Fold this protein.
Amino acid sequence: MRRGLEAVVFTVLVYVATVALQIYQPVTGGYFNLGESMIYLAALTSSPIVAAVAGGVGASLADLTTGYAIFAPATFVIKFAEGYLAGVLVGLFRRTRQKAVAAASVGAVYALGLYYGVSYWAGRVVFGPSSWLWFSLSSIEAFIPWYGWLLVTVLLGAVVVYGVTKYIVKSLEPLALLIAGSLMVTGYFLYEYFVSNPLTGRPPINALYEVPVNIGQAVSGVIISLPVAVWLYRAGFVKQK
């Protein structure tokens, strides 16, 4: 019952935010709007399915009632998927916090460090000759064993873990929303390129022109939704998940 009420409320909010500001894009027939802000707010304060339903239904209704019906089917699928992914990622990042992010980061460092180190820099290595301004360096030859690069990657991994857990982990919610936003950007590009532009007589490649617009739409959604969500939590209207 509670989730159903939240879905209705957020669907209305998505609809209102989408129709309140519409900036027409003549190259694709689409428009810039602020609907992402309420989809992301639902993802931050409710459940993935609520964000999905609100995004899909609210945004597609906005298309149908404001002259953009050609986008309505795609909007339902794209915004539904965007809202669901945003909600899932927000919950995932909140639950796992430092451990998962640190593990992923250090894993990437280890993988890249070992691959490039062992593949290109292990064994006999020659540095130089080189010059910079008035300094000149002759070539230097050294032998670096493979386990030397293993040590380097371990040290780099430790530095990355410290930096991620201390400075970056608190900013993961914007990252979750932007990842979901990239799904929206990609979805509309594909739909405009293969469906809506050909149907309306526009060159398919015009879909590229709306990519930065949709990126701006996602970024605007993050900028608006985050402070609103923080206020709702601090005011006690929403319980911390």
Observations:
- The two ends are 18 Å apart (CA to CA).
- The longest strand covers residues 123-127.
- Helices lie at 2-20, 35-45, 48-65, 72-121, 146-168, 172-199, 211-235.
- The beta strands are 23-25, 30-32, 123-127, 130-132, 135-137, 140-144.
